[in-house]
Specification:
Layout (H helix, E strand, L loop, with lengths): L2 H6 L2 E5 L6 H9 L6 E3 L3 E2 L14 E2 L2 H9 L3 E8 L2 E6 H9 L3 E5 L2 H10 L4 E7 L3 H11 L4 H15 L7 E4 L3 H16 L2
Parallel strand pairs: 1-7, 1-8, 2-7, 3-4, 8-9
Antiparallel strand pairs: 3-6, 5-6
Helix pairs in contact: 6-7
């Protein structure tokens, strides 16, 4: 990633515990044409689920392909979530979006978001979306009806650790009222892109 590329666009990172509403906020912002955003598609070594499409939902790689790309320094950031279960952001993905003259928006875990901010401090706006409380987070995760009690407990435990990282982000949006959170996110992103 060359210096010239960096000038072409900004990086907007949204991180949060699962159930905080970051994906809803990111989807809303992508509809705002004046923000000129494009979603960064992550790479993963996990298997496709359901109707997922390579190059649309994720770039699906084998664990071996993923490890080769790590060795070749092809990732902006990456993480091994479980043994041989990797997630990451390919440098070529950011370059592809910047080449179109667009700004990159990420819906990414806390550690990945902070790594991007460290690598590109001037070009990145790192936003942490905070649930009003852990109890509210539990309620939201249960309402989804997509996960077992054990999985919800695991996510809630992880959320406590993730909430501790909130002060490391440029800004925190408390999502206790979705409409207010959407307006706040839009204003913060707009101000950053036009600064």
């Amino acid at each position: 990633m060359t210096k010239e590329n960096k000038k072409q666009g900004k990086l907007i990172v949204f991180s949060a515990p699962s159930g905080s509403g970051k994906t809803t906020i990111v989807r809303h912002l992508l509809k705002k044409e004046e923000l000129n955003l494009e979603f960064s598609i992550s790479a993963t070594s996990r298997a496709k689920r359901g109707e997922e499409v390579h190059g649309k939902d994720y770039y699906f790689l084998s664990a071996k392909e993923f490890k080769t790309k790590i060795k070749n320094d092809e990732f902006l950031e990456w993480e091994e979530v479980y043994r041989d279960n990797f997630y990451g952001t390919l440098k070529t993905e950011v370059e592809r979006i910047w080449a179109k003259g667009k700004n990159v928006i990420f819906d990414i875990d806390v550690s990945g978001g902070l790594r991007i901010k460290r690598k590109f401090p001037e070009e990145t706006l790192a936003i942490f979306v905070k649930p009003p409380s852990i109890d509210e987070l539990k309620i939201r995760l249960k309402k989804r009806k997509t996960e077992s009690k054990d999985k919800i407990s695991m996510r809630v435990a992880k959320a406590s650790a993730e909430l501790a990282t909130a002060p490391l982000f440029d800004t925190i949006i408390v999502n206790d009222d979705l409409n207010k959170a959407l307006i706040e996110a839009e204003k913060k992103v707009d101000d950053f892109i036009n600064s």
